[in-house]
Structures are given as C-alpha cells and as structure tokens.
Design a protein that fits this description.
Elements: H1 5-127, H2 130-139
Length: 140
C-alpha cells in the first residue's frame, strides 16, 4: 500500500509546529517572567526611593514649620516693640507740643520781666547815685 506523503508530512509539520509553538510559548513565558522580575525589582527600588523622598520632604516641611513658627514669634515681638515705640513717640510729641505752648507763653512773659527788671535796676542805680543826691539837695 502506498501511503501518500502529504498527509504524513502535514501531520509531521503539524506536530513540529505544535512543538515549536510550545517552545516559543515557554521561551516567551520565561522572558516574560524574567522581565516581570526585573520590573518588580525596579518598582521596589522606585518605591524605596519614593519612601526616602517622602521622609526627606516631611523632614524639610517640619524644619520649615519650625522656622516659620520662630519667625512668627520674632515678628510678633517686633510688632509689639514697634507699637511701644510708636506710643512713646506719640507721648513725646504730645510733651513737645505742651513744651512749645508753655514756651510760647513764657518767652514773651520773660521778655516783659527782663525789661521790668532792667527798669528797676536803673531806678535803683539812680537812687544811689551820689551826684544825684547832691543835685537834689542843692535844688531844695
């Protein structure tokens, strides 16, 4: 009996193709598995870096918060000090205004008193002038 070669060849090729397909699938599975392991390692490394970054960022935020609180405290003290200085300046200006009013009142009065003292001194000097006493007695 003559067996046609085509069916055997097609059966052999089918088997060969199936076997080859299995090997390709296994190779692809192994390659995929290797790639998954590599990707998993990279993901783990990125997650570790992310955690480190997160810790550093939180540390920096805490440092900034502390610095901000200190600056706020210093600013509050400076604002209080500025308010006290402004109050003292207002009080000093008020005293200056009062001084100016008092001086405005006293200076003309002082001038009047000086002039009056000068007149009195002249009168005193004249009353003790020996020449005047002699002239006065001669006139009597």
């Amino acid at each position: 009996m003559i067996v046609p070669l085509v069916p055997q060849t097609s059966l052999g090729l089918s088997f060969l193709a199936s076997s080859l397909q299995k090997e390709i699938m296994e190779a692809l599975f192994q390659a995929g598995s290797i790639l998954m392991k590599i990707l998993q390692q990279k993901v783990t490394a990125v997650q570790a870096e992310l955690e480190d970054f997160k810790k550093e960022a939180l540390k920096a935020i805490r440092y900034l918060e502390d610095a901000f609180c200190q600056m706020s405290g210093v600013l509050a003290q400076q604002e209080e000090q500025a308010a006290r200085v402004k109050q003292r300046l207002r009080e000093e200006e008020d005293r200056g205004i009062v001084r100016n009013k008092v001086l405005t009142f006293l200076l003309p009065r002082e001038k009047q008193l000086r002039e009056h003292c000068q007149r009195l001194e002249k009168m005193l000097v004249r009353s003790h002038d020996p020449q005047r006493v002699i002239k006065k007695s001669q006139a009597d």
